[in-house]
Amino acid sequence: MPDGENRTAADVTVVDPRTGTVEETVTTGANPNHVEVADGTAYVVDKSGAGAAGEDQVTRVRIGR
């Protein structure tokens, strides 16, 4: 989930919900803002306008089960 530190660092942290252990940190676009999980993939939306033509970006993160 993006938090204050992740948001400014342009990354998200993947945490094992069973153990609370950080599994990895994934680089995203600047200012990750929303996370949606579906079918083993987390979709992270940034609200930076840093994409092509000033658009927001979506980063896909495969997550384990």
List keywords for this structure.
65 residues, mainly beta, three-stranded antiparallel beta sheet, two-stranded antiparallel sheet, 1 helix, 5 strands, globular
In words, what does this structure look like?
The protein is 9% helix and 45% strand. The protein is mostly beta strands and 65 residues long. The strands form two sheets. A three-stranded antiparallel sheet has the order 3-4-5. A hairpin with a 2-residue loop joins strand 3 and strand 4 (41-46). The two termini are 17 Å apart.
Question: Could you provide a short overview of the structure?
Answer:
This protein has 65 residues and is mainly beta.
User: How many strands appear in the DSSP assignment?
Assistant: 5
Q: Please state roughly what percent of the residues sit in beta strands, choosing from under 5%, 5-15%, 15-25%, 25-35%, 35-45% or over 45%.
A: 35-45%
Secondary structure tally, helices: 1
Residue stretches low in confidence (pLDDT < 50, at least 5 long) are none
Main sheet, how many strands, which sense, barrel? 3 strands, antiparallel
Please give the radius of gyration in angstroms. 12 Å
State the share of residues found in helices, binned by percent. under 10%
**What is the mean predicted local confidence, pLDDT?**
83
- Order of SSEs, N→C? HEEEEE
Strands in their spatial order, largest beta sheet: 3-4-5
How far apart the termini lie comes to 17 Å
Structural class: mainly beta
Shape: globular
